[in-house]
């Protein structure tokens, strides 16, 4: 349920709740708004995404300068993508946007400055002959990464978990598998006894800051990996 809500599947969450006979507090409109924002970013319509974010909660971008810069940089990338799609493409809109919206922010953060310089390099080199660091800027994976960050920021602003527990369970399995590999075990047993004191609440060897006795309890019933 938590995963369906955080990842933006309101209809599936409602069906799940009905079948499980539970009554969760679902703000369907809020979930749908997050979905629309994420889809706008994934499609390259960054301006629309920014407008929708500000309509939903303007403080999200006001309070997270790094996220705001990432969105603006994506918008610049889309302008550059359009300008370089043809040999005689007009780069003026991209230059104007960079000068107006990103250049004033770049001096405030060294990482911003480096990201802007790297992005502007897309105007210099032919799109078909880009080095991997520049080519990655045009990869749809960058849109997905920013969209996920936006989704988490919106969830946090709404007082919701930014990541479903399901992700933690996957991490626990991966961690347990690694422990088994290090111990040279061919298969994971029904329960992995990690040798932790149940009364111990330390965090020095547990994934995601979870107490060790909690971690021990979580890695059960995984079967062969």
TrEMBL record:
Pfam families: CTLH. Coiled coil: none annotated. PROSITE patterns: CTLH, LISH. Residues 30-87 form the CTLH domain. PANTHER family: RAN BINDING PROTEIN 9-RELATED. Involved in the proteasome-dependent degradation of fructose-1,6-bisphosphatase. This is CTLH domain-containing protein. It comes from Alectoria fallacina. The lineage of its organism: Eukaryota, Fungi, Dikarya, Ascomycota, Pezizomycotina.
